[in-house]
Every structure is written in structure tokens, then in C-alpha cells.
Design brief:
This protein has a six-stranded mixed beta sheet with strand order 5-9-2-19-15-14, with helices on one face. Strands 17-16-13-18 form a four-stranded antiparallel beta sheet. The chain is α+β, with helices and mostly antiparallel strands and 396 residues long. It has eleven helices and 19 strands. α3 crosses α6 and α5 crosses α6. β11, α5 and β12 form a beta-alpha-beta unit. It is globular and about 60 Å long. The chain has one domain: C8orf32 fold.
Amino acid sequence: MKRTIIVGSTLFLLLSTLTFTGFVVVKGETEEVSFIIKMGVTYCNNGTENWTFTEEERAISLFMNNTWQTVQLINHSYRLDNTTFDEDGNPMAVLQFPKSQLNLGENISYAVTYYALSKPRLLPDIKEENSSTLNDIPEELKKSYCGEGDTWLVNDSELRDLAYGIAKGETKVLIIVKNFITWFRANVTYATKDTPRYPNETYVERKGDCDDQAILFITLCRILGIPSFLQIGCIHMPKRSPTQDTYWEGHLTTSLKHIGWHGWAMVYIPPWGWLPVDFTYVIGGLDDPLDAIKRAAVTSQTTLQYMNISQMDYVASSRMYSDFLKNSDFYVYTQDEMMEVPPTNHGNDTLEKLFPWIPIIATVVAAVTAAGIFVYVWKRGKPKEIESNPSLAFRA
């Protein structure tokens, strides 16, 4: 994913805190849990031209800090040039590489480590009869999160007909969202591919993975004036065996250890505020359409929120970066690892000694830097339970 950096954006501040009322504790979680996340990347130039790094290719995410989690960057291979925000307001840091470009046959690696404190997750006690209507949504939120953008094709005539056809004149926001979820459950099959789909593609194909389905859903919500955006995060998966796969005609190699990447929608549903809607990873199964909210993956402390996508052309950036690597004969090797640890001082050097890096091509442990890379890593790193347990995914 190629990131467009916008310094001083306030969007992250608007999205970083979930504003709920009428809290209930999810799944009986009452204590904080802690994780170490190690991520890194190696760039290799096997082409005929020099590879000049952009600032975006040196950028790393700083995750989110909000009422559900606190994440600290505790180690990084190179000094930080600066900290900033991308165009969707996600906090970023830019690494100071020892060289600005790679010559033929050269490579460069970096690694970063995060300490994450995940807190008990609170959700409101949502009921259809208590839902507010479309008229109760603040106009400023509609302006910020109902626009077309490059990913959300809100002016597509077929998608507009679909949105209004499913809503059938309903005005209560929660009921509209429930009707959308029911439609997805009956009409869209889980299937993944190398790069994300635009909403019209998912609609025509009637299939898509977590982010594909979320993008179509977000588009339908925005058509009706319901604020929404895409959120991406990682899930701790201690029972999942380590994986290593090669994609994009061999130009991208990814390794994952006890971590899965996932995407879901965030939707503004009055009077409760921002709520998650998950289409492919519903904890405990989907007995009721509203379980897509109540049992979304992010309601578990094992899931960490990574970044929000509202303005950037998420689909095009992924496809463009794939083409860039293949056409230039450049290669990228990544590895991600996530492990639960006792709560501790995030600056404790002993903690780092307990969890040494697992190398891949030099000393890599991966992180998802350029957006095309990141998009693909978490798509391919989706939790395997989605595939093995049909109750976790919507199927026709």
C-alpha cells in the first residue's frame, strides 16, 4: 500500500476513541492482557535499475491508542526521521534508512517491535426498538464519512438500487444495518484474492473476503447517509501454525507466526455511536444478524486495531504496488509475529531478550510498510478459522 502522508491531520483523533453509551462487558473479560508484536521487512533489488525509496516506503504504523488499547513502539532498527499522519489520520513514523536507494543486487532490512496493552472491551446494549433514525445522524459525520472517495462508489447506479432496495424505506439505522447484514449472509460467499476488490466487483462476483465485503457494505451505508469506514487490525492466534507463502509472481514472500490480519467496518449507529460490523469473523458463530456487531472480532481483547481507511484509494494502491514490484523486478520479504506476555514496563530490556527475532532473509521480522504490501499480508494472513469453520463466514 502506498501511503500518502498528510501532516497535522485530525482524523485520527476523531476515530481513535469509540463513543458508546450503555456499556456492557463483552464475554466476561475483566482484566488487561498484553502482547508483543514484532514486524519487519526486507527490500531486495534484483532488477536493472536503482530502487529509490519514498518516504512512504520508510513509514511504519504506530497503531492506535484509545479506550480499548494502548500500543507503544519499543524498538526499531533505525532512527526515526519524524512522526506524522497519513491521509486517513493514522499515526505513522518514518525510519531513517542508511541509504536512500538500492543498487542492483543490494538489499536492506528493518525490524520494529510494539508492546500492546489490550483492555476489556465495552459495547452498548443495542436493541432494534432503541435505534435512532437517519435524521439523528450529525451532519458533520455525514460530510466526513459518507462521501464517494476513490474506494466507495456511492454514485454507482446498481449499488444505489441495491442499497435502497434492501432498506425498503426503513429509517431506523440499526434495522437498516441488520437488513444489510442479512442480505450479505444470503448472497455473498467468502473468497479471497491477491488484491482487494472494489464494491461493484464484489457485488457482481457475489464473493469476497473480509475487506471486500466490508467495502461493499460501507458503500451501501454511505449511499443511505450512514457514516462508515474500514478498519484493519491483527488477531493473536496462538494455536495457528507458522506459515510462509510467496505471491505476486514470487515478488512478495510473507511469514506469519501466531498472528492473523483482518478487516471490518465501523458504522455510526445512533444513539450508540461508532460500532463494528464484521462479516467474516464472528466469535462463537452467527446466530443472529446483530451478532456481526456484538461478536465482531474486535470485541475480543485478542484483536488490536491497526489503522482506519476512509479517504485513501485502498484498492488501487494495493494493485499499483503489486504492479510496481513485478515490473521493476523488486522483491519484498516480510514476517509478523504476535505473542501474549505478562503486563510489564514496555521499556524493559529483559522483555526483548525473552523473545528473539526469528530471521527471514537476513534479520527480518515483518511489518507491513507500503500499503500494497500491508493490504496483501493481512488479507493472506486472515485467521484460518474463517476457512475451517463455516459458521464464522457468510456463505450463500
